[in-house]
């Protein structure tokens, strides 16, 4: 490529005279310039691959936003949310819900599960001088959604070696059928074996219903009634007694 010594007069920021000079006197350079401009414009609006580091970061932000606010996964297909992320990075496109469920959510679940498993493993550290770091207490609760679906939630509580209380949810799952003590006990035992913590359990805490009480006895690790539930029963009893 060469440059000529021609002096071109132009007014202000107008470049038409320069462009005309290039196209008429230096057609090869002019065509090369146009090609570079087209490529630059195309790359400006090209979509980032989903496995790009920047895309993965923005996708994770979107998922954490949904999880933190308990929003439905369908929100990723909302045009307004897509616009927000496009404003952050014009070349980024929010993935569809299928990709989110199969790829992003599954990976985040596996990562979180591995982290929790490691924390529970450390709770079994026999070399620790903190006795409580070798014990795990479980809370178990049955509840129903607004649509009438029955669920069971089990949470593990333990004190870390640095004496910090830690609580982790082991499972929230739909529990169809009757909530009998036999079924609840079998579910609880299977869960503890799956997480390798059965030998660490020192107590089960639940509400005061008969099925949960019997589950605590069958579980054989000691049972305590939930303090909040007990206080609620006492308050309601006194309230109705006055009437």
Automatic annotation (TrEMBL):
Coiled coil spans: none
Top-level taxon: Eukaryota
GO CC terms in record: nucleus
InterPro entries with a match to the protein in the record: RNaseH-like_sf (IPR012337), ZnF_BED_domain_contain (IPR052035)
Keywords: Metal-binding, Nucleus, Zinc, Zinc-finger
Protein name per UniProt: Transposase
Primary location: nucleus
Subcellular location, record wording: Nucleus
Molecular function in Gene Ontology: zinc ion binding
């Amino acid at each position: 490529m060469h440059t000529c010594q021609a002096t071109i007069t132009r007014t202000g920021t107008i470049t038409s005279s320069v462009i005309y000079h290039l196209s008429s006197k230096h057609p090869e350079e002019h065509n090369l310039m146009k090609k570079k401009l087209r490529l630059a414009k195309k790359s400006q609006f090209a979509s980032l691959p989903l496995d790009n580091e920047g895309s993965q970061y923005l996708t994770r932000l979107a998922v954490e936003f949904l999880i933190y606010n308990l929003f439905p996964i369908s929100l990723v297909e909302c045009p307004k949310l897509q616009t927000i992320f496009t404003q952050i990075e014009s070349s980024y496109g929010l993935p569809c819900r299928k990709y989110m469920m199969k790829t992003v959510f599954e990976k985040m679940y596996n990562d979180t599960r591995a982290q929790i498993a490691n924390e529970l493993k450390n709770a079994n550290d026999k070399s620790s001088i903190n006795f409580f770091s070798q014990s795990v207490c479980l809370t178990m609760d049955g509840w129903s959604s607004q649509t009438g679906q029955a669920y069971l939630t089990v949470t593990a509580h333990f004190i870390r070696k640095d004496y910090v209380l830690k609580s982790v949810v082991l499972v929230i799952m739909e529990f169809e059928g009757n909530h009998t003590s036999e079924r609840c006990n079998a579910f609880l035992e299977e869960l503890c074996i799956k997480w390798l913590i059965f030998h660490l359990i020192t107590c089960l805490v639940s509400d005061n219903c008969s099925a949960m009480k019997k589950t605590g006895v069958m579980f054989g690790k000691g049972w305590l009634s939930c303090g909040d539930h007990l206080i609620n029963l006492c308050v309601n009893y006194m309230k109705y007694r006055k009437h």
